[in-house]
């Protein structure tokens, strides 16, 4: 990589500098310190230095060398500045190029070993010229014969680093122009303060009215929300300033303001809708909500009602959970499926449905077994307990039979194929009361869909939407019992003419 002459030059300079490898590499720009040590050892042993291979193409072209030398001569003759500006070559290499092309250019700026320092008088004169600033620092340094960094080092040596490099007095501007500039700065600062205050007030109102985070981007708000902010601050700031800060068009503001004024006529109605929704286990959708309003002589379109419920956050829970399954296998012959998915009944006590469902809360498990009349969905009887055993379903059946003691009817009682409906106690009660048994097909839940639908409504409206972590078993059983009574007496069913099951029977004269 390096010629024989390059290696000899490096070794000789290395010896002249007292075997200081770093200084030699810094001055020549080549090679590495390890290579220099290896060349010196070979030279001491009296061996000829290997010439190595000859670079087929020079590392730097003649144009690059000339450009580096020209930059050095035209920009203050500073090796470090030229190397930093052009990103090539090393300072040692650049010094060699300058020596080859212009040897006289470096004789007065590159110090030699043993050179005499500049006298103090020369330093003081140069520093005075530097501080007076009649000429540039580069011109002063060239006239003295030193580099700019050396000139500044003299200043630091004589005056200290804290003294500024210029002591030239500036002419004071006229008083009038200075006053005008200061007034302009004051006005600019006042505008900035007012703009910041406006942004703070907007963010504060967005937090109060819209429940937004204080770091919200105001331009991401809807035009309706921006209109609310403008109305809240229009007494404090001009409309044009508010429009500009929010990025709101003037026409959009007046459009949404008119819409908001129209919406205010439903302010009282919102409270009524919320009261009905929360007073009915938060389970009324817009259809039953509209029916409840009609019962209060309030007429409202479906679209308006749905919009108001959405704005008030009145949404019915739709979560689902797994259901309890009591099937234990075929333990006795099963009767036919007499219902066959026909859950319509022309009169009460024609078709009864029953099943068992499970509630799992923190305090434990609770089971519910109802009997439902297909005529109007009335829950004839129900049993709530902690163990789904034979007594659990038998007591429910006894209570249902008591309700029809004075009626001449033989209801069909339909269930799944669970073991509860095949035990001797259940079969004996069925036979004594003259009831007709019917069972779903094996593993076919839709055969008892009406009873499963009741469980789904019960859990969606009552169970899933509430937190039962702190509720005891006794309290939960009371809550379930209260819900079923509300379901029979007050809960609106659209299919019954917006009446509850008991209200429907009273209207038909069928109440017990």
Automatic annotation (TrEMBL):
Domain (Integrase catalytic): residue spans on this chain: 344-509
Cross-referenced Pfam families: HTH_21 (PF13276), HTH_23 (PF13384), rve (PF00665), rve_2 (PF13333)
UniProt-recorded Gene Ontology molecular function terms: nucleic acid binding
SUPFAM superfamilies xref list: Homeodomain-like (SSF46689), Ribonuclease H-like (SSF53098)
InterPro entries according to UniProt: Homeodomain-like_sf, HTH-like_dom, Integrase_cat-core, RNaseH-like_sf, RNaseH_sf, Transpos_IS3, Transposase_IS3/IS150/IS904
Keyword Transcription (UniProt): no
Signal peptide: none
Coiled coil: 179-213
Ribosomal protein in keyword set: no
GO biological process, one term: DNA integration
Keywords: Coiled coil, Plasmid
PROSITE patterns documented for this protein: INTEGRASE
Entry protein name: Integrase catalytic region
Origin species: Granulicella tundricola (strain ATCC BAA-1859 / DSM 23138 / MP5ACTX9)
